[in-house]
């Protein structure tokens, strides 16, 4: 499963982008999570490092030839480099810094090539003990490659090919007729394991999309897509948490539509729901970036702004009154109009709970409605 300890950078090199692409349209969050999964499952990674180094060392001890000393040295350098890049990437991800994802993917491919190289050297050495040990080792690595890297199935397929492909080449060079059976076995094995990696990736993506959708539904109003009441209170608390909160003010706009019931009565609940969606769109279009917009009741909305001055708050209130009160065209061709009343709490968050701040804005809304609706009432509190 994806690593949840930090955000890992997406690859920048075009070949690496293609290799880690899941092969389907996914959200940016899922894409980052899939890349993060390539840095996870440390037990499999450590097991693979120990296995490849141990096998290379044993074969080199058994056959002390130049090509095997070269292979052992190559394995050592690759493992040291991979451990260094992996450790650095995890540390940088936790610190919010760019990670060397391209280098990590490249080293993974080089490692798979080294596994295949050792297998080829062992098969062509004429020593069948070394050949058997190397072939068993490379075959064992495939399971780890699939389970550790199925977040990037294309990369997994290439790693499997690099690790096992040299077995076929070695069988041809060795000239042992019985060993040529690998020319049939290995392609089937490579295809089946790569296909399994793609299926596992599809299952992972489907699970992550389902989790994202569930999390979104839990936090948002199903009709308008705005935040719901529980999420609003969470955002108010979060907006109020700051080292310099004594110097900051939050602006809470509590909005209630005037004349919404008549629209519902005339055009039915479908028309009323459509109107609420249009109102939500206009609110989103008017508020500045970073503002929270929520629907907390039938036709009640709340907007939360941080660090806004009194004058800018008043300007936004005037703009909301004007834009929300403009006519709406429903899908049935009818033109409808509603008004809006706004209560504004402009307060310092320290010393106030989220519910208390919302209550101040609610009382300000009551005062606005008492003045004849279609206006706003401004309440300030320390």
From TrEMBL:
Listed InterPro entries: DGC-Regulatory_Protein (IPR052163), GGDEF_dom (IPR000160), Nucleotide_cyclase (IPR029787), Rev_trsase/Diguanyl_cyclase (IPR043128)
Domain of life (superkingdom): Bacteria
Residue ranges annotated for the GGDEF domain, each copy included: 248-381
Pfam families in UniProt: GGDEF
Annotated transmembrane regions: 34-62, 68-89, 101-122, 128-147, 159-180
Keyword terms of this UniProt record: Membrane, Transmembrane, Transmembrane helix
Keyword Transmembrane: yes
PANTHER family in UniProt: DIGUANYLATE CYCLASE DGCT-RELATED, GGDEF DOMAIN-CONTAINING PROTEIN
Protein name per UniProt: GGDEF domain-containing protein
Organism the protein comes from: Cupriavidus yeoncheonensis
